[in-house]
Structures are given as structure tokens and as C-alpha cells.
Design brief:
The protein has 7 helices and 17 strands. By secondary structure, it is an alpha+beta fold. The protein folds into 3 domains: 55 residues, RNA-binding S4 domain (Structural Genomics Hypothetical 15.5 Kd Protein In mrcA-pckA Intergenic Region, Chain A, Roll), CATH 3.10.290.10; 95 residues, 2-Layer Sandwich (Alpha-Beta Plaits), CATH 3.30.70; 77 residues, Alpha-Beta Plaits (2-Layer Sandwich). The strands form 4 sheets. Strands 7, 8, 9, 10, 13, 14, 15, 16 and 17 form a 9-stranded mixed sheet that branches. Strands 3-2-5-6 form a 4-stranded antiparallel sheet. Strands 1-4 form a two-stranded antiparallel ribbon. The longest helix is centred in the last third of the chain and has 10 residues. The termini are far apart.
Length: 274
């Protein structure tokens, strides 16, 4: 029987676009809490903004403001430590960080930073959410959404991070089981909530954690008298590195952004207004 569908033209799959910078939709005369203004300018979280205000580091239209709860407008000039802030559109990037790259916005020793990998990406100033060691590769979010960045890093929200680990020697099944149960480090216990060895690469395993202490995975491996030879973050807060090559980045999609905000109990953004 002749196949009548053989030459039927397939409909192109609709491509889901990344979310370009999202306007914050404040009019020039709308009242905004000062700490919210500072956070939405990408400088820090609202709680940290309150500290800056109380410590006398914030000026509005040239006048020192130390009182919490003050409201400002988009047209006002807000200055923190001599830096004038603006409510730039929110920008959200996912970077596949390469090896030998510093997770900071600049480096006084001239070393390569994550900003070098996303420079000229947007007209907005973005900041890395958390840190990855210099020689740790993989998934890193960069944004100027101060509230989101702060909550993603805060331990109370228990954001999951999954790493691909290669150790100098193969960890035994008993040692991997110990990682699942928890090991005692100098700054407290740490456990892998998911630990699974690669069948075809016995020195490699996946491990998921819900905290972000410095060098945590490396220290957990060192507990067994060996060390990490390769470390890559492959998942963060439900995001992964699919279709993002090493050293490259992409904009987060609208659904991904609001999933992140929902995860840390922030209101979703209305992209239809942007």
C-alpha cells in the first residue's frame, strides 16, 4: 500500500525563546520601598539593603537616609557607597562555566572571570549566584535580580545542587553509602541526598546536596583520604546544562525564571507586560 504521508511536510517545531531582559514595570512616580529599589537594582537582597541603610551608606537625591521603610520613586537618584543605582531590566543567564575561571565580577590579579565568558551578553550588569571553585566547571546562574539571587543562596530554601565527581581513587561502595548517611566535617555534618556511581567509570559518581558550604564536595571526598580530580555542577534548582557547551551561556526561559521564583517563594513575573 502506498504511504500517502510519505511526502507530507512536517510542521516546524515551535522554538521556545529565552527570556530577554525583563522590564520591571515601575512608572517614574510609583512609590517603591527603598530596600526593594536597592535589591531590584541588583546590588543585594532587601535584608542586606536594610543594613546598608542603617549603617548610613545610602543617599536619596543627595540626602543621607538611615530610616527603614522610606519609599522612593524610579525618577529619584539613589546612591549606595558612591554608586548610583538604576532599575535596569531583570536579566537571567545560565552559564556553563569553564575550568580555570574565577567566579567573581572582576579580579585584581587579571585572571579570567565568569564575566569574561558573558561580557557583552546584555546591556545589564549581572552577578553570579553563589560561587564555583576556580577549577570547578558547570552550571552557574547570573542575574541582577537581587531578591532571587539571595534566596537561591540562602540555606533555608534548600536549593538542590548536583555534581559529577571524579576522585583520585575509586571510593568503595561502603564509602559511597557513608556519603549518603553523612560524614562529620570540621564545620558540621554533611550528607549526599543522592549518590550514584557511574557503571562505566568507577572513579566517577553523582552527588546531590542541599547546601552550599565552601568546598563542600571536595571536603566530603577528602574525608576518605583521597581528593577530587574533576568536579562539575550538572544541575542547579532544577536547571541543567542541556545544549549549553562549555564556556557558553544562554538566557533562561520565561518558565524557568518563574519556576525559580516559585521555588524560593517569590511572586512570578508577568512577561506579558514586558
Amino acid at each position: 500500500m502506498k504511504n500517502n504521508n510519505r511526502h507530507k511536510k512536517k510542521k516546524p517545531r515551535k522554538k521556545e525563546e529565552g527570556a530577554k531582559p525583563v522590564d520591571q514595570n515601575y512608572s517614574k512616580t510609583e512609590s517603591i520601598r527603598l530596600n526593594k529599589f536597592i535589591a531590584h537594582a541588583g546590588l543585594c537582597s532587601r535584608r542586606e539593603a536594610d543594613k546598608l541603610i542603617e549603617e548610613g551608606n545610602v543617599y536619596v537625591n543627595g540626602k543621607l537616609v538611615k530610616e527603614l521603610g522610606v519609599s522612593v520613586q524610579r525618577k529619584d537618584t539613589v546612591t549606595v557607597d558612591g554608586q548610583t543605582l538604576t532599575l535596569e531590566p531583570f536579566t537571567y543567564l545560565l552559564l556553563n562555566k569553564s575550568r580555570n575561571t574565577i567566579t567573581t565580577t572582576d579580579d585584581d590579579r587579571g585572571r579570567k572571570t565568569v564575566m569574561d565568558e558573558v561580557e557583552n551578553a546584555t546591556g545589564s550588569r549581572v552577578y553570579p549566584v553563589g560561587r564555583l571553585d576556580r577549577n570547578t566547571t558547570g552550571l552557574l546562574i547570573l542575574t541582577n535580580d537581587g531578591d532571587l539571587a539571595h534566596r537561591l543562596m540562602h540555606p533555608s530554601y534548600k536549593v538542590r545542587k548536583t555534581y559529577e565527581v571524579e576522585s583520585q581513587r575509586m571510593l568503595t561502595d561502603e564509602e559511597l553509602a557513608k556519603l549518603r548517611a553523612g560524614v562529620e566535617l570540621e564545620d558540621g555534618p554533611a550528607k549526599g541526598h543522592y549518590v550514584e556511581r557511574y557503571v562505566d567509570a568507577p572513579k566517577q559518581f553523582l552527588i546531590s546536596v542541599f547546601e552550599g558550604r565552601n568546598h563542600l564536595i571536595r571536603r566530603m571526598v577528602e574525608y576518605f583520604g583521597t581528593e577530587v580530580t574533576r568536579l562539575k555542577r550538572v544541575e542547579y534548582a532544577g536547571l541543567n546544562l542541556k545544549d549549553v557547551k562549555m564556556g557558553r551561556w544562554r538566557f533562561l526561559k520565561q518558565k524557568e525564571i518563574n519556576n525559580l521564583r516559585k521555588l524560593v517563594k517569590l511572586e512570578p513575573l508577568d512577561f506579558k507586560k514586558s
